């Protein structure tokens, strides 16, 4: 008998019928002898409905009162799911974030979990109850309701699993696991049975948006085995765990990509220490996030400096950079908003050479020009012309034989 | 400067536009220098929407989880109203029932308020904030969310006013006060400037449903001046207070009526002690509420016994009574579901004789036959044939000169 925390997202509990399906799934698990803590989101559409109401009353709804408003979404779901379970003869009890006491800091709308009082939950579990907890919410030390920000329900589930030392935290979603790449681009994409936290973090931040990054970080920190499964189909999903040194690691686990990037370059900047912060400081001051950064020494004691930003920020970043160029006496500024990024990710590349050359060779054979390269310990990213994105992903998927079961 | 508790019902906060109007009204009061605690209901329709959801999942939604569900309705309103006030530049802060700590017993769906911790509210008022509290809800000593039952928001407002020793508790509703009778029946019906708690209790329980009886009882018990006003029109409404012995009391304050009654009679019951409980016991056992009761001694040591019930309960009451008649050896059972009750109410009748005869004379002149009579210290009720109801109300309204301003 094990303790499992399950999280069902908004789509999984989007209608009364779906809530009934979730209740049945929970009962199946319970009949296998598991203790269950269930974390739920607001019914799909509900959070947006509430935000729309708020927007009609406030220019920029935020802060304490927005959390009071939004937290009702999950509160409705916990009550309905508990009722459904009880109607099916299963003892169940619901908890809001405040009732559990999921203590957070007081950063309304994006609070961080500080502590969880698992005392009452344990007591209910001991009494054979299914415990249903509202995701996404908590309260600060003065009892003010807080929310964890979008996707916070995943974080709630992982945090509860960590606090209760659960055997597994299962995240039910509308996909049935983590794939080697996006199946819409590569039809041979394969669901991974397992992946490490590190790989998942690289995959998630690179655009394979299955799980909230924060919840993966949290699971990694507290070593909570995390499983992504579908609410709608059967199957074991993908298990995300710490790296197991005894395991033979796949070289490459997956290929992530991102088409929302734009590239800016400032050429012929007189080179002296601190030049990078002079270029990026004004960008950061406008809250524009920079992704890849590359600096090359040019000729005549000047340097060329390239970075990428989200495509939405391209125009304002370009304006800022033109200003900076004038101040620094740079030769030229140029940019390209038709680029895309492809990354191969895998902990196996730590101990294997030649990944980069396999990658570059494969792209070269299809005449795909590499505009930028950036590497980390378990990832190699390249920036290419946007129009070659799908071709590049398919080529790399094949080059690393990701379609083959291992 | 005084402390006022204002309560706005579901219709008053039924849309975003109406919430804005309520915010403006609150600001007007605040500009007059008052400290304000605002109690709000769920937006109209919301509670029914939630109950509908629950009914799709549970045969008979009730208990703890129903309260978790329903309490979200008011929680949405407190957040939206606070946002509206802040958007208009007024500091405001919202409280759920649990956050105030409105402590109740644990009778879910119909909890009773046990204690109110007014500490935080006082602190916020001192800081110049408008305090917005969710009506209808509280929590038990273990932090379980409870609700006070339909109309409980009025009770919340009165209880807060009592706890804070407020100068007045204002109940905003969709009528502009308490009338001498229903203006739809008597076009000359006049809004009363004031009425006593006792009179209001008689009027409310007799069908003039402006305020929840419970809230009037509560206000009476703690001597909280209660004012009923309209959210939509200007005017001072009706003040409901304790009886002021120095005041010249009107003879009659109003005429209440009720057309939902039915009458049952059991004739020729062998008379001996305890016969009333033998007749009414089986009725009460089926949770049928009995209103008027009359017993007359008949001939030959038998008695005739008549009582009224809600019309919806007529058929089941009749079945029970037929059973009882057989057991007791009664002669006959008959009933009438086409009756109506009219009551004249006024504390003035305590010190004035002749009210009853004025009432009976007026009805007699219109050839309205009186079927039953029942009296209390401040009320005389008659049961008549339903078809004479409107005529009877108009006749009595005129007989007691209620259309005249005093």
From TrEMBL, chains A, B:
Keywords on record: Amino-acid biosynthesis, ATP-binding, Kinase, Lysine biosynthesis, Nucleotide-binding, Transferase
Pathway: Amino-acid biosynthesis; L-lysine biosynthesis via DAP pathway; (S)-tetrahydrodipicolinate from L-aspartate: step 1/4; Amino-acid biosynthesis; L-methionine biosynthesis via de novo pathway; L-homoserine from L-aspartate: step 1/3; Amino-acid biosynthesis; L-threonine biosynthesis; L-threonine from L-aspartate: step 1/5
Record: residues binding substrate: 47, 74
Alphabetized CDD domains for the sequence: AAK_AKii-LysC-BS, ACT_AKii-LysC-BS-like_1, ACT_AKii-LysC-BS-like_2
Pfam families (alphabetical): AA_kinase, ACT, ACT_9
GO terms assigned for molecular function: aspartate kinase activity; ATP binding
Keyword ATP-binding in record: yes
Ranges for domain ACT: 264-338, 344-406
Binding site for ATP: 7-10, 173-174, 179, 184, 209-210
Catalytic reactions on record: L-aspartate + ATP = 4-phospho-L-aspartate + ADP
Gene Ontology CC annotations of this record: cytosol
Record-level GO BP terms: homoserine biosynthetic process; lysine biosynthetic process via diaminopimelate; threonine biosynthetic process
EC number of this enzyme: 2.7.2.4
UniProt similarity note: Belongs to the aspartokinase family.
Protein name: Aspartokinase
Highest classification ranks of the organism: Bacteria, Pseudomonadati, Pseudomonadota, Gammaproteobacteria, Thiotrichales
